[in-house]
């Protein structure tokens, strides 16, 4: 036998509806009006060069505000604008009262002289910070393009990015010995390696092929001082 299923009566429905409304109102009060879930602490992870204090100060998180009301996207934008060293930042609500900032910093691939200081350039060719002392092992970048048509055609940012792309194409062993990158135009990039050796690289095109040819030349001509791989199908070596 099947027992008859009775639909809840009108009074029961009203009671249920009132209960739902009261529960929702209580939840909203807890999230936005109570003192239970408010911002009391900002936690920073991932910072290496920047200090947690610098990150917290730049974030300017709304302390004592309801944690649920924090605009995480606006906070992330503010951090990137105020601290260009920050490449990405994940802003998280950590209940009941903490904002978490997980920072990824830009790392220098090249350095540019800026007065008596050094401007750091990252893997995307972005100048993001100026430091007093040159970080160890980071090559210098010299841009001598003021009279080059390439400056008008490509712009400084694209030429700087080309220089970074060339360094990234180098085999690891040669990259460790890279001391300087000179850019005179888009198709006239020169590298200076340890021991006074120089490399005429040309443009950043065919980078993988040029790197392969250069590695073979350096291995075969250990006493050579100058290598030309600007046309990788017809490389040249000179000096001893």
UniProtKB/TrEMBL annotation:
Function recorded in the entry: Essential cell division protein.
Transmembrane feature ranges: 12-32
Protein origin, superkingdom: Bacteria
Key words, A-Z: Cell cycle, Cell division, Cell membrane, Membrane, Transmembrane, Transmembrane helix
Subcellular location: Cell membrane; Membrane
UniProt key word DNA damage: no
Protein name: Cell division protein FtsQ
Highest classification ranks of the organism: Bacteria, Bacillati, Actinomycetota, Actinomycetes, Kitasatosporales
Organism name: Streptomyces sioyaensis
């Amino acid at each position: 036998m099947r027992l008859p299923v009775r639909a809840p009566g009108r009074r029961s429905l009203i009671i249920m509806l009132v209960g739902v409304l009261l529960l929702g109102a209580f939840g909203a009060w807890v999230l936005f009006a109570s003192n239970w879930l408010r911002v009391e602490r900002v936690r920073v992870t991932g910072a290496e060069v920047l200090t947690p204090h610098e990150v917290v100060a730049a974030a300017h998180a709304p302390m004592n505000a309801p944690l649920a009301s924090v605009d995480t996207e606006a906070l992330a934008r503010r951090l990137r604008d105020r601290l260009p060293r920050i490449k990405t930042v994940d802003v998280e609500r950590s209940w009941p009262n903490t904002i978490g900032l997980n920072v990824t910093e830009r790392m220098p691939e090249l350095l540019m002289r800026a007065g008596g200081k050094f401007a750091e350039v990252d893997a995307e060719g972005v100048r993001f910070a100026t430091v007093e002392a040159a970080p160890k092992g980071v090559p210098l970048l010299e841009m001598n393009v003021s009279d080059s048509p390439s400056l008008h055609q490509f712009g400084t940012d694209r030429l700087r990015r080309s220089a970074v792309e060339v360094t990234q194409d180098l085999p690891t062993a040669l990259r460790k010995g890279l001391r300087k990158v000179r850019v005179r135009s888009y198709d006239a990039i020169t590298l200076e390696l340890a021991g006074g050796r120089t490399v005429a690289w040309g443009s950043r095109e065919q980078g993988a092929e040029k790197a392969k040819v250069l590695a073979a030349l350096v291995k075969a001509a250990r006493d050579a001082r100058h290598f030309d791989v600007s046309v990788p199908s017809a490389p040249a070596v000179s000096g001893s």
